[in-house]
Amino acid sequence: EIIEREIDRVADRWGLRRSLFRALIRVESGGNPKALSPVGARGITQVMPFNHKRCGLRSADDLWDALSNLDCGAQILREELDEHGDEAKALTLYNRGRLKSRQGQQYAAKVLKLTKKGA
């Protein structure tokens, strides 16, 4: 499938471990490019609409395009990794933003556990 190939290509482009990016996608959307969270996160990597500008997209509607969404999610994760240097911290921030929460830490642990299993 095209999306499967693109996941690896995008991970490579942003210097992410493929297994980490695949695990993030599995936890975020189960691989569903049309996923919509109760708080409004969109697509396969569950990007919040306000992040479209961060990723250089014209509008939040561009997040419904699976390839744009993959690229935006990877960019955000890469930025958090570069800033914090720690996968658990970067994943927590990816999930919860700057809010301190146990839920974000549990999310990070779940993604990292899946990463070890090869997502």
Shape category: globular
Distance between the termini: 17 Å
Order of helices and strands: HHHHH
Report the portion of residues in β strands.
under 5%
The share of residues in helices is 55-70%
Largest sheet: none
Protein structure class = mainly alpha
Mean pLDDT: 92
* pLDDT < 50 stretches: none
In DSSP terms (H or I, runs of 4 or more residues), the helix count works out at 5
How many beta strands in the DSSP annotation? 0
Compute the CA-based radius of gyration.
13 Å
Brief account:
With 119 residues, the protein is mainly α. It has helices spanning 2-13, 18-29, 66-84, 87-96, 102-117.
Structure characteristics:
5 helices, mainly alpha, 119 residues
Summarize the structure in words.
With 119 residues, this protein is mainly α. It is 58% helix and 0% strand. It has five helices and no strands. Helix 4 crosses helix 5 (102-117). The longest helix has 19 residues, at 66-84. The two termini are 17 Å apart. 34% of the residues are buried. The model has no long low-confidence stretch (mean pLDDT 92).
Break the fold down into its secondary structure elements and pairings.
Blueprint: H1 2-13, H2 18-29, H3 66-84, H4 87-96, H5 102-117
Helix pairs in contact: 1-3, 2-5, 3-4, 4-5
